[in-house]
Specification:
CATH class of the largest domain in chain B: Alpha Beta
Number of domains of chain B: 2
Order of helices and strands of chain C: HHEEHHEEEHEEHEHHEEEEHH
CATH topology of the largest domain in chain C: Threonyl-tRNA Synthetase, Chain A, domain 2
Strand content of chain B: 5-15%
Number of domains of chain C: 2
Strand order of the largest sheet of chain C: 2-1-5-3-4
Oligomer: heterotrimer
CATH topology of the largest domain in chain B: 50s Ribosomal Protein L17, Chain: A
Helix content of chain B: 55-70%
Number of helices of chain B: 7
Chains: A alpha+beta (about 190), B mainly alpha (about 200), C alpha+beta (about 325)
Radius of gyration of chain B: 27 Å
Largest interface: A-B, 33 and 27 residues
Amino acid sequence: MPRILLLSIKTIIGNLENLFAMVKGSPPALAMIMSDRNNPTTQTFSLKDVIGDGFLWAVPKHRRSVEKRLNRKFGFPEYVWKPLKEKRNLRSCLKCGHEHELGVLCSFCYDIVRKETHQMQEKIQESLGVAPIDQEVVVLYDGENDLSPEALKGSRVVEIQKPRPMWFTKNLLQKSTQQSADTKEVKPSDLG
Amino acid sequence: MNQADVSKLMSQLRIAVRSNKRNLKNPDGPEGRLLKLRKTVTALVKHERIELFYNRADEARGYAELLISNAIRHGDRHKATMELADYWLLEKQLVHKLFKVLVPRYENYNVSYTRMFKAPRDYPGIYYRKSVLELRGNPYPVLTQDNSQNRNLLHNVLLDEARKEFRREKLASLANKLAAETEETPKPTVEKATEV
Amino acid sequence: MATATKLYKQSWHALRQLQQYRTIASGNASASIKSRNELFNQEQKRQRDAVGRVEKIEVRYLGLPEDVTLVMNNHISTPYNCAQHLSEGHCKRSALALVDGSVPWDMHRPLQESCTLQLLNFNVSEPHVVNKAFWRTCSFMLGAALQRAFKDEARLQLHSFPGPNIKSGSFVHDIVLGAQNWEPTKAEMRAISAEMVKLAAQDLRIERLEVDKELAKEMFKDSRYKSEQLPSIAQQNQSRVTLYRLGDHIDISRGPMVASTRFLGKCTILAAHKVANEGSTDAFYRLQGVALPTGFSLNHIAYGLLEKRAQKLNSARLPNEPFEEQQQMQLS
């Protein structure tokens, strides 16, 4: 035990001696470099030699500001705006309630009209054929034969074998709740 | 002084026709482009309502208006008009339709003969805009409901009443005038009678 | 251009003057308005609290985009709340509601039982009911505009407005002023019109409240003419009085009225006709104007014709004539 203690004290003193020796004298490694300084090749050393040609070419030279970065990311509202934009030109159709763009026909209403128009066009072309067209065309739906011959004079009648659609009436301003003409009003009699 | 009235010399259209030509690309060059337009005008006269791209409809509309306007102005005895109709209408039975149906229909119109609407397209849609081109007075269902004819709307009620009142005042003033005249006229006759 | 700017300047100065007077003279009138509003608020709160346990009703909505059934709260939910369930467009566009297909109902009046509901705007095919409500609202708004425009020294007292009659060509509000020979200049008329436009721009909600005869008397105790009219009005309606409020302006009216002041579009106040002398210093005046709802465009020549017609004295019952119920019933 006392022997171990003695040994440890000895090593500590040795370490201390080494430490002071380092401070006093110059270490051997540094001396090596000092001796290398006399080499003539390192005399014209400059940063250019290390960098060479084109070493910095693909790297940003300046920092891009926050404003620039944001503009590149989102665009500029008045020129090009990259994120989604809200559409302000939408209105709901007064007839059907579906939304449509301002100044453009309502897609729902137009679809109905387009289908009916195509049917009518087909029927008209079928009946006209390739003969010279010299008369106005009047389209009559099923059960519409109440027009007077004078009204149909000078016009060509095309009949479509289906009832007239509800929304496509002759007079849209006419009241739809009018009493039909064929119902007769019967007054009660003999009620005693 | 003997200058001719310019409006009598040429057709006065009721639509603004843009003079620049629209981009209607075609492999056949300008001729193919014109053929496209002729096909469109023919289809319009034939079907009276067609749906197509906006550019093509817009340019063809001007030609259709001009054709109808010339037909109304000159009639079917005019050689140049007949040549024009022959050029624009590819199906020749439509030449009859132009002079025998469309001319009587539009003779007394003081609005344009055609109407054009922007047609809807699916969102987000292709780049080209769609449109509907139609002749007025066609037998098909209407595309837009005209609300201005509803006499019950507030401004129409006000205007109708103003019109009625104006007429009433006119009639009253006329009646007053008549009454004043009849009051004045008996006097001389009486004087004459006394003279005799 | 120069004349336009001149006109603008003139009317602007007139308006500024009127406003300055108003701010200087904050006397009895503002105090009575304040107490009236307080009473209105209290009664409104009391009625809301009196609802108690919430009861559900089924409201069948008929119209665009489709017919639906909404479950709403009895005595709490209004047609406006129903419109909120449908879409923003319905809220913005609807001026009046039609309950059970025939009864016109204010947009901000709570529903009272299960019913069918239609929302009306000015473009429907049969707009008689909405037009009438609009015309009545114009008269009511004219009262509010006058109260804002006149200073206290003018001794303005609102008298009443006859039932709406669109065919007469003008809406009317009868007032009593402390001047026997007031001949309004164009700039003054324009200033009152500007007040109307300002009210419209403020988008004020028009509230409806039914109160007892006693409370109404308490509210209008400062107003001589209103308290004179109150007994006969209350008699017609089982001693209940219907009040309408717009901002801080409260008036008696049978209603219905449109939902908001926003619906007033083009508006001109055109004439102030002296009707009769009242006492030794005051006089009755009848103010008249013409207006169109928002979204209605009329070219200036046609509108000019309407303006010209609206300048003539309206033939509705005059304020100094005896109060005839029959006539009133016919008109409104």
